[in-house]
Amino acid sequence: MSNGRKLEGPGPTQRLWLGFEKIINAVTTSEYNPFYYLGAIGIFFLWVIFISGIVLFIFYNVTARGAYDSVQYLTVKQWYFGGVLRSLHRYAAQGLIIAGIVHTLRCYALDRYKHWRWLAWVSGVILMWLIWIGGIFGYWMVWDERAKFIALSSARMLESIPLFGMPLSLTFASARNVTDEFFYIILVIHFFSLFVVFVLLLVHLSRITKSIVNPPKLLTYGLVFLLFLVSLLHPATSAPSADLKKLTQSVPFDWLFMFVFPMLKHMSAMGVWLLIVTFTLVISIVPWLTRTKKGPATVVTQKNCTGCELCMEDCPYEAIQMRPRTDSLPYELEAVVLEARCASCGICTGSCDYTAMSLPDMTEDYLKGEIRRCSRELKSVNGAKVLVFSCSKGAFEGKEIPGFEWARVLTLQCIGQLQPSMAAIPFEEGIDGVFIAGCILGDCSFRFGNIWLEDRILRHRPPVFKKSIDRARIRSVWLAAVNKRDFLKSLAEFHGELEGPKAKPA
Ligand code: HEM
Fold it and tell me: CA-CA-CA-CA torsion for 308, 313, 319, 322, nearest 10 degrees?
């Protein structure tokens, strides 16, 4: 249902993923579904790493001889405090890697990584490697047999780069070469990588408006509980102290951080580097490799713009900026759309009361015309008539619903595109009810379209729905693409209510 835009619903991969999340929703409810907060969960883990890291640093002895003993002291003698903190530090780091991997898979599976999201994607890839480097150096600091294994393996990899003159593994040929300065360098790299992660996060989130950086409270409490539980049941421990005279036998293996090293058994260090570089490059350019056509960016009709800033407030991807007025109209500011960042979701058109924001292939006039046309198509139907506004990523695709001849569906790119004045038109045309079907709150493909619309219906966010519209004649449901049955059930119930008690089944 569009001028020129072919609205695409979710594909098989997206449905598969959403089907899985539907199961999680049944357990946690959508409000606390951890899959909706993976980025925020990652940031929560980062804070745990940072805070526990500061306390661990106070007890850590930055010397070749003292490093192992100081960690051992914390783990064994001070298990109730330092030991728990050490475990929290390690498990939060592992949690961060897991959250990052699942977050990446989710963005990919739900097709949320291309076009305007490229910066978040590419910076995400770099973030993951930085987190990995930070973790590896964290394991070095313990200076146990595992650290020795990591040190020798990393040295083998580094010395394969012609930049290094002397083979680095010679450093580990004798304990005398492993100096206190060496431990200072490791500590600085470990700290610095976390610092760079925080800085890179700013880049990661730079084009995301009001990014969700904290999980809901209940979820946070759950994570804290889980971290403590694992830390107490399975405390992080060290391997025996590193002994450079001995050959490394088996070491406790952390696949999340050490996955690269076993490859050295099967290929040269240069081969491993090539694999890493190729993998990173391919993942980084995935948004371009799989690029599909995107709708045109929003166009501003300057003479209608009052500079109210609502569009800028509502845009999910920082694509709208305000600048001083360039014409003679008596307003201070005017809106400008940054084309490359525009998701073409139409949320800004939903927030504009003055027809200043417009999608060239789905203009407000066009949509209003469609609303009238659909409403008139239902004129001849007996009983209550319903106009459905649905989201292209939501629970229903199509114009007519078999068996529901009293309903017509108008699909929008995002439900947030629904401008309140549009919702009044069906009633002017003799329609009895307006049914709004958007995606699950907390999981809009364009981040906030459904939340903004819900707020408008409740008259909490301007522009608000008209007071004159009877609220009983508007029904909003928030469902995923895999909830078609719930969609049909809610629509039928709504229709039944509009028909009155007579029509309701006994
Ligand atoms: C583990 C480190 C990471 C953290 C802490 C993190 C954090 C976040 C946060 C807080 C958001 C904003 C969520 C929102 O408000 O809607 C976000 C969005 C995003 N992240 Fe990450 N991220 C991480 C890693 C990654 C990785 C590895 C990738 C991909 C390679 C990635 C790709 C994205 C994309 C594409 C978005 C935009 C999603 C959307 O527009 O719906 N992130 N990230």
Answer: 30
Element (H, E) at 321: strand 320-324
Give the CATH number of domain 299-358. 3.30.70.3270
User: Tokens 């490859």 sit at which residue?
Assistant: 263
Q: Characterize the bridge pairing of strands 357-358 and 299-300.
A: antiparallel
- Residue 329 has what pLDDT? 97
Give the distance (Å) from ligand 1 centre to CA of residue 449.
18
d(CA 313, CA 455): 14
Collect contacts of 249-255 with beta carbons under 8 A, ≥24 apart.
249/145, 251/145, 251/146, 251/148, 251/149, 252/146, 253/146, 254/94, 254/139
Q: Do 35-289 and 299-358 agree at the fold level?
A: no
Compute, in angstroms, the gap from residue 120 CA to the centroid of ligand 1: 6
Number of residues that make up the chain? 506
Ligand 1 atom showing the smallest separation from residue 117 Cα: 35
DSSP 381-434: --S--EEEEEETTSS--SS--TT-TTEEEEEESSGGG--HHHHHHHHHTT--EE
CB contact at 8 A, 473 and 464? no
Low-confidence ranges of the chain (pLDDT < 50): 1-2, 502-506
Distance between CA atoms of 468 and 110, rounded to whole angstroms? 39
Measuring from atom 2 of ligand 1, which residue has the nearest CA?
100
DSSP SS3 for 336: strand
Q: Of 204, 289, 341, 451, which is best to mutate to test ligand 1, by the most ligand atoms within 8 angstroms of its C-beta?
A: 204
- pLDDT tens-digit profile of 35-62? 999 999 999 999 999 999 999 999 999 9
- Assess contact for 439 and 201: CB atoms under 8 A: no
Q: Tell me how many degrees the CA angle 293-370-376 measures, rounded to the nearest 5.
A: 155
Euclidean distance between CA atoms 236 and 233, whole angstroms: 10
| Torsion angles phi and psi, residue 478, rounded to 5 | -120, 100
Q: Where are the domains of the chain?
A: 35-289, 299-358, 364-503
Contact 442, 24 (CB under 8 A): no
- Which of 274, 164, 216 lies closest to 41 in space, CA to CA? 216
> What does the pLDDT look like over 357-375, one tens digit per residue?
999 999 999 999 999 999 9
Model confidence, pTM: 0.95
pLDDT computed for residue 275 by the predictor: 98
Write phi, then psi, for 108 (nearest 5 degrees). Answer: -70, -50
Q: Tell whether ligand 1 has an atom less than 6 A from the beta carbon of residue 130.
A: no
| Highest CATH level, class, for 35-289 | mainly alpha
Distance, in Å, from the CA atom of 155 to the CA atom of 157, rounded to the nearest integer, reads 5
